[in-house]
Structures are given as structure tokens and as C-alpha cells.
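stage 2 :: seqdesign
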């Protein structure tokens, strides 16, 4: 069952003042509502075995310097509000290092099962809502694995990407690695240059908002083999991933004349959760020409880009919170996810090979659990690869490895069709 948020007190040895305490943002508070109790999982595959002492020694001056990682989230029963209360961080409660056989027969299966078991539990609210698991066993893609688990109320993917970027260094230098898109001045905005283009933007935005509001109220995706069911957000998940060449993706982009862009990172260390929604239709009918899937998605994305859907869905979400409160907004957020089939999210990753606390990183695989849907796909770039991470409910998708393999096969097939043209 979903855990209820309980009233907590800071540790007795810590004296806090009103000035020390900051309220949780409305969106952060929403992540404690039923159906939205979401945790972020970030998997780092390392090129060497991990020295736990080195990790533990570096955490206080890096991760714990961020107030959200060194504060309790305390609920005031009288007014129902929550606040950050600084506390002492006992790293023994947050860093877990199980004793493992580094050469066990099936390291990949053990790591996969271990991470899946994390999704069966929630972090105790009597401490800051994060933990780190160091798994020193060899897998196919890494010599060791470390897994960060963080409650979504602490921050979103962009916030966490910036945090770990600040904790890392380029593998061959002391400089910080750069995120994809950091060399750009920001998102390029095309100005409306004609009445026709202005009308197209307004029309596309209106259509998108009608679909969004309808999805909140009554509109549901057609039932498919990937559809979830009531209460699925409380079930454990399994996490699998595959990587494809960035050059292959760029090849398709160039051949199909598809615009390529990534989420811009928030500058100046801005923390928090920024929520907006973009609802995309996907045609599941079989097509003889696999490039037809790309063409249809391109057409739909051109409509989405020529609209203000992300801006206005974000405004609507914040307006609902202000007018109707957190509980109503939580139900609205739950409806958006439960009435749709799957969620896609992407975060730009480092453009150079990086090291985390002196350990070279071979891959990064972020994901999450706690959403009311059977399939969530997260995408992250790292140097010359794009990694697709699947978070699945095994009752709905009993063989996630096969689905993950199909993503890789589809990418290769599309590239082969391009070469045959």
C-alpha cells in the first residue's frame, strides 16, 4: 500500500530556527500525494571497482551541501503544509554497501534484481529522502555499479543532472564536463513573422489544450497490451536499458530532415520541479515501411513545436494548485498519467567521459517508479551514445529485455532502410 506522509520532528541534537526552515514548493508537495509518490533511480556503471571510502568522504562536501539532501520534509498537521528542516546526515543511514562476490556467476541478473527490489520500498521519512547503493560486482557493461535513489520532491531530472555534473570531472582532466546543449546560448525562439504563422500557433495551442483538459476529465487511450490498471503505481518495477549510437540517430535525422534538439538546462543552479505536459499520439498499426513511423512522428512534432502547449499546460498545473489545492492537483496529475499509455522523458547528459568521485563512468541510466502506468521510457545522452531506460510492470510486460532489444533492432532497421535508399 502507499505510505502516508507522517508528522516528523528534526533530530533532538539539532537546534533549528524559523529562518532555517523553508516551505516545500507546491509541486514538491504534490509528489507526496497518493498516486504521485515518485522516486528517481540513477544508475551509474563504472569502469573500475568502487572504493566506498572515497565515495563517503566526498559526499559531505558535494551532495550534502545541497540543503535538500540534508533536510527532513516535515508535515505540519495543523495546516497540512510541509517544510524543509535542516538535520544531521548520518551517512551510515544513506550509503549501503552490501558484501558481494565481485566475480559472481550472474552479476547482471543480481544488479537488475537488486534495483528492482528498491522499487518495492520507500525511504523512511525520518531522514532525508535519498540513498546510495554501491554494488561491487562485474556486469556486462561495467566493473561495478552505483545506484542513487532520490524522492522526486527533492528535484527533477535537470536539477539532478546539474548536481551530479558539479560532483564529477572530465575523465581526462580536472575540468567539469559539459551537458549537451551547454555551448548554445539557450533555446532558439522563432518569431512569428506572419499572420498565418501566428494563427497556426494559436490554433495548435488551442487543440493541444482541449486534448489535455479532455484527458484530465474523461479522455482515455484505447486499451492495449501496454495499458496499466488501477493501483499499478504501488507495484514494484523492473529496469532495463539499451544504448544506440548517437551517430546513427543523427544519420536518420539528417536523412529525414528531422529537427534535433534537447532540453535546455536551467542556469544559475536553479533547483526544484518544473512540470509541463505534452500529449503525443502514437500509431501502433503495423507499417511495411519503418520510416513511415519517423515521418508521422516528425509531422506531429512539427505541430507541437508550432504551439505553446508546454507553457500553457505548466500554467494550468500551477493555476490548479493555487485555486484548488495540492490534493486536487495531485488527482489531476494522476489522471493525466493513468489515462495515457506510456510516458517519455529525456535529459541531456555529459558530452565528455566523466568520473564521479575519481571513478570513471561507463554509462548513465536514469529511471523512476511510482507512476500509474505500466511503461515509462527515459532517454539520456552520454558522449557518443543515447541510452533508453525502461521502467516496467512485469505483470503487463513480462519480458522487458525483449522489448528493450526491439528498440535496438528498430534503430538498426531504420538505419539500414536509410542506407538502402
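stage 2 :: out
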Amino acid at each position: 500500500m502507499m505510505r502516508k506522509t507522517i508528522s516528523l520532528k528534526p533530530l533532538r541534537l539539532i537546534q533549528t530556527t524559523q529562518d532555517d526552515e523553508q516551505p516545500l514548493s507546491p509541486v514538491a508537495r504534490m509528489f507526496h500525494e497518493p498516486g504521485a509518490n515518485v522516486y528517481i533511480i540513477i544508475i551509474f556503471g563504472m569502469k573500475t571497482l568502487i572504493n566506498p571510502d572515497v565515495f563517503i568522504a566526498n559526499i559531505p562536501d558535494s551532495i550534502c551541501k545541497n540543503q535538500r539532501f540534508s533536510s527532513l520534509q516535515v508535515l505540519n498537521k495543523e495546516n497540512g503544509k510541509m517544510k524543509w528542516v535542516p538535520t544531521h546526515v548520518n551517512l551510515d543511514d544513506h550509503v549501503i554497501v552490501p558484501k558481494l562476490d565481485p566475480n559472481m556467476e550472474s552479476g547482471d541478473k543480481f544488479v537488475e534484481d537488486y534495483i528492482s527490489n528498491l522499487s518495492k520500498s520507500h525511504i523512511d521519512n525520518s531522514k532525508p529522502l535519498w540513498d546510495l547503493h554501491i554494488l561491487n560486482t562485474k556486469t556486462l557493461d561495467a566493473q561495478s555499479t552505483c545506484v542513487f535513489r532520490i524522492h522526486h520532491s527533492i528535484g527533477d531530472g535537470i536539477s539532478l543532472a546539474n548536481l551530479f555534473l558539479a560532483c564529477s570531472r572530465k575523465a581526462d582532466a580536472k575540468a567539469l564536463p559539459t551537458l549537451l546543449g551547454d555551448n548554445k546560448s539557450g533555446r532558439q525562439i522563432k518569431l512569428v513573422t506572419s499572420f498565418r504563422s501566428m494563427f497556426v500557433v494559436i490554433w495548435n495551442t488551442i487543440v493541444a489544450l482541449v486534448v489535455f483538459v479532455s484527458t484530465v476529465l474523461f479522455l482515455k487511450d484505447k486499451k492495449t497490451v501496454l495499458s496499466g490498471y488501477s493501483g499499478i503505481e504501488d507495484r514494484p518495477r523492473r529496469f532495463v536499458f539499451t544504448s544506440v549510437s548517437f551517430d546513427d540517430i543523427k544519420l536518420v535525422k539528417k536523412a529525414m530532415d528531422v529537427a534535433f534538439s534537447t532540453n535546455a538546462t536551467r542556469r544559475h543552479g536553479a533547483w526544484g520541479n518544473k512540470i509541463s505536459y505534452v500529449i503525443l499520439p502514437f500509431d501502433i498499426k503495423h507499417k511495411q515501411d519503418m520510416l513511415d513511423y519517423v515521418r508521422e512522428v516528425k509531422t506531429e512534432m512539427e505541430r507541437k513545436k508550432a504551439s505553446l502547449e508546454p507553457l500553457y499546460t505548466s500554467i494550468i498545473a500551477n493555476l490548479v494548485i493555487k485555486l484548488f489545492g495540492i490534493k486536487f492537483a495531485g488527482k489531476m496529475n494522476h489522471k493525466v498519467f493513468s489515462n495515457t499509455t506510456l510516458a517519455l522523458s529525456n535529459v541531456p547528459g555529459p558530452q565528455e567521459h566523466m568520473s564521479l568521485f575519481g571513478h570513471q563512468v561507463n554509462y548513465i541510466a536514469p529511471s523512476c517508479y511510482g507512476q500509474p502506468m505500466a511503461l515509462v521510457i527515459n532517454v539520456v545522452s552520454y558522449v557518443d551514445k543515447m541510452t533508453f531506460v525502461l521502467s516496467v510492470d512485469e505483470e503487463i510486460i513480462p519480458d522487458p529485455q525483449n522489448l528493450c532489444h526491439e528498440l535496438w533492432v528498430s534503430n538498426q532497421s531504420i538505419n539500414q532502410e536509410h542506407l538502402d535508399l
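stage 3 :: structure notes
- The mean pLDDT is 84.
- DSSP finds ten helices and 14 strands in the chain.
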